[in-house]
Structures are given as structure tokens and as C-alpha cells.
Amino acid sequence: MQYDYLIIGGGMVADSAARGIREHDTTGSIGILGADSDEPYTRPALSKKLWTDSDFGRDQVPLGTASEADAHVHTGTRVASIDRSNSSVTTDTGERYEYGTLLLATGAEPTRIELAPSPRVVYFRTFADYRALRELTKTADHIAVVGGGYIGTEIASALSLQGVKVTLVTSDAVVGGHMFPPSLAAVFDKGFADHGVTVRRGTKVTSGAEASARVQLQLDDGSALEADGVVFGLGVRPSTELADAAGLAVDDGIVVDQFLRTEDDHVYAAGDVANYPDAVLGRRRVEHVDNATEMGKAAGRNMAGAAEPYSYTPYFYSDIYDDGYQAIGTMSTSLSTVEDWKSVGKEGVVYYLDDEAVVRGVLMWNVWEGLDEARTLLAEKKPQTEQSLRGLI
Ligand SMILES: NC(=O)c1ccc[n+]([C@@H]2O[C@H](COP(=O)([O-])OP(=O)(O)OC[C@H]3O[C@@H](n4cnc5c(N)ncnc54)[C@H](O)[C@@H]3O)[C@@H](O)[C@H]2O)c1
After folding, report:
1. What SMART domains would the database entry show (predicted)?
2. Global pTM?
């Protein structure tokens, strides 16, 4: 089979890229090869919104790529190799696809620990994982959630709101401590306790085993934890194997230029898997949904001849209980912070500054305006003071 544009990976990047291609080329053929059994679907709803709907289901998440972007979506199709010398890829069942231009949108794989696969064990990432967890909650009274990052905090909050008994294991001294200043981390942490979540702080899960319909986890503080099921959110690793084997540069992701092109003019990469030169923040890999959609679209447009440098600074948002936050740039406790609260932990802005007092990240807590101002602040790269930042957003 031959496609003018071939996309490996069937997620949100693939959907956006197909739409981006269509903005420039209405007739070229587009093929999407995705290992997932589902067509491209929207992901944030899986860890957030769908839990609050009594009626959940497949219709709530597909993006409509095939009909809206006129793309051929091949689900359950895993690419095994890329042959750049004759512009083709081969699947693990031996099917061959030729391409005019190729996009690698292979995403990332969840980090796993040593624990045999089981319906009681979910490494939360895909729609299939969401379905598995919903199934598990029908019988499990107590679920351990391991990891205090985005997945861990969103799932722990969603599960506890469903009335499930939850134990959250985090390596942070307080939940959110790896990115929030102490004042906010304290509020964030307390939110879980207030909703009945037991938190095991400052410890990591090292191994696990399943016995008598229970999962037993060993923690590195010497303690153990037993639950009816476990959800892991231990971070992800970019899926670079295909690119690596095809001789493309890989360095914490597939290395692309400002046009999202690899060193091969006919091969692009975008999304979680791409290491790109952000115009404001410098070279990096970004794992949030906004990056997937914006970068996917930009890659698609460039594949179809747009030749536009990618210059969008991505942001992300998260919802935990009644609170929500959005952020742009880098949130790291290694940076100093300036906090501008209307009311501490209820509504305000946290600025993350480097050694030169230049703002590198902005976190807006229950504040849903000011994203443009934050983008401008980051792009200006000027030293700031507490006074200059106060009341800015
Ligand atoms: N709102 C959002 O933007 C959003 C929501 C969900 C997921 N995501 C994305 O999904 C990806 C996966 O999310 P995630 O939460 O798995 O990653 P993450 O990197 O946010 O958090 C992983 C956490 O797990 C901890 N950890 C690692 N090993 C551990 C162990 N053995 N025991 C206990 N803790 C351990 C780490 O210290 C880290 O705090 C990320 O790329 C994230 O950006 C984003």
C-alpha cells in the first residue's frame, strides 16, 4: 500500500497532523498506522472528565480523524521497521507501506516495575487502560495508586470521588512537593486527606506480587501495602526504538529541527516522542496534550509544504477535586518562586524564576485567564522582581 503521508502512531498527534496536512493539501492520501485497537481519541478525559459522567463509553472520546481529515486509520497495526532507503515501513505481520513523507508520532511508554500482568494491575495510559480500571472498580474496594505525578494525583482524586478507598504512594515528602512551593503543596496534599485518601509519603514501590485476589506491594521504606488493585503512574519513556533502528538521531526523544523534521527531509516527528528546539524554553521534550495537538498540527502542515518554524510554547492543565491549575514553562523546585495569591491555595499565581530572576514558568491556580500574559512574560526573558510580578496576571 502507498500513502503520500504516512503517520506511525494512532494518538492525538496523528489526528492533529492529519488535520494539519489537510489545511495545505486536500487531496494527498493519508495513512495512519496505530498499534492501539482504538482509533485516535482524546486523552485528558480518561483521567478527568469521564469519571464524573455516569454514562461513559467509546462515543465520548474518538476524534473522528478518518471522516473529518479523510485519513485511512489502520488500528491494531504495529510497525516493526522503517526502511528509509526505499521510503517504506513494514509491520510486525509483514505488511509493507510506502510513503512520500513519514511522521513518527509513536508517543511514550509507561514505566513499569517487576509485577506480572493482571487485570488488577493498570499502568494508566490508554483508553483500554481506562476501561480496565473502570472494570476493576466494579469489584475492588481498595485501590493503591502509585506515583504522585499527573496520573497519580488525577486518578487518586477521581477514584476517591467515586467512593473507592484509595492509598496514594508518592516519593514526595508532601503530594505535589516536586513542583509546587511548600505553601501550595501543603494545600494540595491536604486535599487528598480531606477526601479520605491515605497517603504514603516519601517512599517508592520497588516490587509487587499478586496472591489470593490481592496485590501486594513492597515499598523502599521497608513497609508493604496490600490492595484489591493497583494503578501506576510512574512516568513515561519516549518510544524511540523505530527511529533508532532507522539510523535517526535520538537524544531523549527523536531529534527534530524547528520545522519538526529529522535529519531526513522526508521524516518528521512530533508529540511526546520529539525532542525539539522550543523558541522560548530551549531544546526539550514535552509530554502534555497541548503539545501533542499543536505540534502534531504544525508537523502536518510542514509535511504538506508549509515550511513554518514551530514556535508555540505549550501549556497544560489539571483538575484535582474542586481545584484546577494551568501552567506554562518549567515548574521545578530547583527554581526560586514568587507567589502572588488572592487567597493562599484558593486562587493565585506562582512564578518560577532562574538565577537571573528571569521567569521560566508560570502556574495559575484556579485562575483561568492570563495565559497570553504568561506567554509574553516567558518570551521576554527579562529579569523580574516581586513587585513587577505582583498583580500581573
Ligand atoms: N494534566 C496533564 O497534563 C496530564 C495528565 C495525565 C497525564 N499526563 C502525562 O502523562 C504522562 C505520565 O504521567 P505520570 O503521572 O505517570 O508521570 P509523572 O512524571 O508526572 O509522575 C511520575 C511520578 O511517579 C514517581 N515515581 C516513579 N517511580 C516510582 C515508584 N516506583 N514508586 C512511587 N513513585 C514513583 C515519580 O517520582 C513521579 O513523581 C506524563 O507525561 C504526563 O505529562 C499529563
Report:
1. AIF_C
2. 0.94
Distance 155 CA to ligand 1 centre (A): 11
Stretch(es) of the chain classified as CATH 3.50.50.60: 2-109+236-303, 112-232
Q: How many residues does the chain have?
A: 393
Q: Is 43 in the pocket of ligand 1 (CB under 6 A)?
A: no
CATH code assigned to 322-389: 3.30.390.30
Contact in structure between 14 and 105 (CB atoms under 8 Å): yes
Q: What's the CATH fold of domain 112-232?
A: FAD/NAD(P)-binding domain (3.50.50)
Atom of ligand 1 nearest to the CA of 150: 15
Residue with CA nearest ligand 1 atom 27: 234
- Using the mean position of ligand 1's atoms as its centre, give its distance from the Cα of residue 232 in Å: 9
CATH 3.30.390.30 domain span(s) along the chain = 322-389
ipTM associated with this complex: 0.96
Architecture (CATH level 2) of domain 2-109+236-303:
3-Layer(bba) Sandwich (3.50)
